[in-house]
Amino acid sequence: MTTRPSRFPALLLLAVALLTLPGADNRAEIRAWKVIEKTIDSGEPEDLFERTTSYLESFPGGEYTLLAHRLAGGAAFELGEWRSARRHLESWLTLGGREGLDEVKLLIALTVGEDGDREGGASQLRNVASTAQDPTVVQRAARELVAQHLFDGDWRRALDAQGLLLARKLFDPDKDLDDARTALSAAKRARETAGKEWMDDSWDELERLASSPLVAGLIGAVALEDRRQMVDAPSTEDARRSWALRYPEHPLITWVPGAEEFAAEPEDTNPLAVGLLLPMTGRYAAPGALARRGIDLAIQAAVELGWPQIELHVVDTGGEEAAAAAGVGTLVDKDKVIAVLGPMISSSAPGVADAATRHLVPAIMMTQKPGMAQSPYVFNAWLHPDDQIRALVDHTMGRLGMTKFAIAYPDKESAGELAGKFWDAVEKAGGQIVSVESYPAESTDFRETGRKLNAAWYMASPPGEADLVLPWLGSRKKPQVGHEPITALEPGLDYQAIFVPDNYRRVTMLAPGFIFEEINLGGHIDKTKDKEYLPVTLLGGSALNHPDLVTRGGKYTEGTILVDGFFLESAEPGAQHFTDAYRAAYGTDPTILEATAYDATIFLIQLLSEGVGTRRELVRRLALSTPVQSVTGARGFNADGSMVHELLTLQVHRGAIVQVWPKPATEDDADEAGQ
Fold this sequence. Notes:
- It contains 27 helices and 15 strands.
- The chain has about 675 residues and is of the alpha/beta class.
- The strands form 3 sheets. Strands 6, 7, 8, 9, 10, 11, 14 and 15 form an 8-stranded mixed sheet that branches. The chain has a 5-stranded parallel sheet with strand order 2-1-3-4-5, sandwiched between helices.
């Protein structure tokens, strides 16, 4: 932490200025105050503290009480007597002290932290830096906060504190950039400690995840410096121009060479031209055609709402990354598009992200794989796994009162990631994961998985070290065998639900195998005179939302709870209108693919209807705005570029998938299923 300069001289000057208070009638009080005046002149904080506190004890409510508290608080601060300092300074505030108010609030914040309440002190420092009127106090508070967070190794909060200086236009590159460099060096080390290699695009990821545009711009500026692009040369012009167009009003605009001129350059953009990257031919032509249907319906709906008619420029990517990336350049240079929709194929996402960033054009992707939006110019409208996990945990724990869970997941990376997220979310909410088991991704027989989930397998065959490993879950171990002796778990009692991050086809095969192992899915195992089988609920994500979950799974999938952003039978008016329009136009039912394409398109047109006319403004608005029309529960893009969704909770009830949350007003059966 930084060493703070003494504030005692400043307090003396203030005290002298305040010694024009009216005289007191009490001669003893006057004599006592004269002694204090001489002590002020001597500049000895120990003597001053002793005499001002003596005055306060001898003359409660005296003529100079207000000033005595201020002097005692300042002297105690210099002596490191934090509690005394805080007590006297807060008494000064309570009695109506206002002269030098910002300085006093700063000293109080510092005493709170120095007295051991570092979080409380940091909170008060942040408040001072945000509200103080004295710019010198603002700088001192913010820099003290930066120093504290750097001392604690919290580089994110250190950068956020620097954001306070940027917001108040008090960031001094000569004094404050070194702290930013220190914080970002710590970010590099943290990434490497976590086993992740620091690469050039790691800067883009940090910038994207910044807490505010001001902090993002600071990160981007330091990245230019780190990449040796902070020089006025033709080879660095594109990078500096990109930064300037992203942050045209940033306080560091004068620090980046040429940035002011770049920010003032007009865009060569057609504000109604939108590019579309879809596979219209090749092996992905069928899903590409479905996405196009959703886009066309959105354009039609926007016109009906009185929004502008966009000009759609289509590039057939054939599902190839190179074609998709090249298409971005064509759409920008030739068609002057304001934004690009697509791609929808995850393998094409990295190339499109690079091209969109290079051409400074926002791209709204529709890829199922998360983590593709690592540039300020890239967004992803697809349903994010985090939303699904949150919705499942909210419903099962928050509404149904479940507390204990098991997890069975296929041995593949995406499923392992979902299993880990569910595990974390349950424990964060106060629940418990009592059993976890993986199975081969192409399994068709799940009886062994059920026995392992219940620990019966390991009772018969004690596990070795290899048996404890959970693929894709790092160092986590199977909780059902983490103790001695291993005991069998009783489904329904030891765990109330099983999370299975797999598709509906696999789950319809899994359910009978689990029933065979006396895991009472759907409540269909008959009670015997010796044992009652408590019910267990299957849980899953949007990959279970298919009619065949019921037609193929039958009674074994009864009661299954799943979440999704789109449901054909949704009672939501917007979803009903979209489904009816789709059926009328194409004679079949839409899926989440068409619904996602619809939402991405209509959100873009919404922003254009609100007067957005440049790419740089569109990037900002995409990051800050909320859709007014949505059929997938879209609520706006998150800091990492992923779309936030408010999901529907669905359940298999009486042989059909029904909506149970939000509770449909007209669906009595759905209400009953959700009890």
